[in-house]
Fold this protein.
Amino acid sequence: MATTTNVAGIIFANMHDSTITDLTKLRTMGSVPFGGRYRLIDFPLSNMVNSGISSVGVITKSNYQSLLDHLGSGVAWDLSRKASGLRILPPYGNAAESYTYGGLYRGRLEALANVIRFIKNLTAEYIVMSDCNVIVNIDYKSVLDFHLKKGADITVVYGRGSYNAEEMRTKTILNINQDDLVYDVLIRPEINSDTPEDNQVNASLNMFVMSKQFLLDIVTESASRSLYSFEIDIMQRRCKELKIIGYKYDGYYSQIDSLITYFKANMELLNLDKRAALFNANRPVYTKVRDEAPAKYGLKAEVSNSLIADGCVIEGTVEDCVLFRGVKIGKNTTVKNSIIMQDSVINDKIDLGYVIADKDVVVPSYRTMIGTADFPVFIGKGEKI
Amino acid sequence: MRHVKKECVAMILAGGQGSRLYALTQDMAKPAVPYGGKYRLIDFPLSNCVNSGFDTVGVLTQYLPLVLNEYIGNGHPWGLNSIHGGVHVLAPYENPEGKSWYSGTANAIYQNMNFVDRYNPEYVAILAGDHIYKMDYAKMLDYHKMQEADVTIAVLEVPWEEASRFGIMSADENGIITEFAEKPAEPKSNLASMGVYIYSWQKLKKYLIANEQDQTAKKDFGGNIIPDMLKDGCKMVAYNFDSYWKDVGTIDSLWEANMDLLDPKVPLDLYDPAWRVYSRNEIMPPHFCGGECVIENSMISEGCNINGRVDSSILFAGVTVEKGAAVHDSIIMPGAYIKKGAVIQYAIVGEDTLIGENVQIGERPERIENINDEIWGVAVIGHRVKLKDDTVIKPKAMIDKSN
């Protein structure tokens, strides 16, 4: 992949933390484990790298130790570069310099205002921004081409789908005309029960392309007016005055905005077509290397329809599961429809169903824990049951 | 450039052809041969160096170095991409006296004395690039210093009946080596050299230079340097190692060494977080086990897609086993694709091979009447071979791209 110095990336690692508080209690949205060996930030980072972007800033706010540990120098994403590469942008603590006290931003515009020097110093002419809650393998070059062709001020990536009232509470809905122009923006709309279930809407994937100069202009202008929300103060309020273009993404994606959607997004990886859409050999998803030995299956292991990472040792039965690196499944144990994260130990003679076990969990022998598809049991990081 | 002094520099001999691995070393040197589901043989000495605190490593290559060069790269996967030291691939080079291949193990080190001298070390460790073992060289170096030895040689007790395959040391009660015999017909001891040496550098240099001037010498450690030092009364000590060590010189031993990983009694633990074996990892998602797959007593790496049957086998990254295909007691190297109905038994299948539908490879030994070494052995499919549908490959066959 040829790299371009003309485009830079900005990733918001903490946006949507509040939608899955169980998993973000001790970490950022970006460092939420996903898919057996990944963290959510691996997807936007890999997408940027695979689109030729070699300069990426990661804006973070709180709980970012696991994020720093995961990203390191950026070498795993090929972002440990001489002249560009990965820049982690934690809150800027100098009250006089930053726009908000302690640098703890309230919205995307304030977050950008706090890192305005980073943006000014970028040599890039265009900026791609992304959050970490969408699992997708997207080529940002196509988005940028579309942005240039349309002569847009802002291009926003959206997907088309139908959502119930609960799901709508985290969505930004875009009304778009046949010229791809966004003419109305609805943030977390309430829908009444008369709305048909299959009512198709355009949901923002919170990925934006714009020129660096345009971004600098709106950020500085908003700061002087004490505006901090990109969605409300720019996308919504200035919708008619700016040229905001929608880029429809037709491929597979999943948007995580609750523990249930997190669970579903993991389970969707057990589907061959969806897995193939995400893990394209020419556009690989990079992540931190852990140097685990291959997974080991015992004499009585029975595993079906599951995704198993390196370093697992399986002696029991595993069905319809995602097992992260270094998980141990004991003898005469059955684990079904569950997500077991890194280094968790499920001992002997245990029955688990619809469980999400965070990292380093220990389940001692002779336990049974069964949740349901719409209410999985969650076991917090490091808990010894 | 100024070089920071190092106490010990490690030199890994990685030029070996591994001719008895036939098809598997037709396009790569033996230290690059895949092992254990995600490693290449050289990962073991490299990881041992790093885990022992040796941060300056020369890797001497000669035979088909492309795979090895690319694999080692800047040394980052082993943490050997440091400012001072790190890993350096040392290929033979042309000099004012003419072209010069490495004519033996001692000559290879001789030609790279300038590399070692840059770090002005007290000691140099000479290591084989193709042995499987986990060893703390720092402890061996401590022993070397305590004994004030000129050379310390790591030795392993081997069964007496196998002793004549090795370089055999006799040592007295203080561990001083009194006799050395290369592959003796009638061994006087069962202490075999593991090909792991620590030399006091200045002493070794003298012997390397003298050996080089001797036109009749084989320019080899076992053949010249060790016998010469013994004859001169140098202090040579044996360092006992009593854990897992394997030289995979043959197809059978490569197959066995892989199967050892499935045997809980074999003391080679790759899952110990305190002594990781590092490797250059493939960028692939976790492996997927389909709804009807059966996997028992096996090791499976990331990127695999298993819909058939796998037992007592080792699958490297990115292997596909279609529904209705079966793999028993076999080693399947990275990227192999096994189509439906294929049955693979007692075989080693090379990198990026394509095994067509209903192909039969190898056979279980118990299914063969009057079995002997002439008719039964592990079957080998060389790297990048494509087998057409319904092909039958007999046990012990060796298939490469030319077949």
Notes: The CA atoms of residues 335 and 372 of chain A lie 13 Å apart. The mean pLDDT of chain A is 93. Chain A is about 20% helix and 25% strand. The two ends of chain A are 47 Å apart (CA to CA).
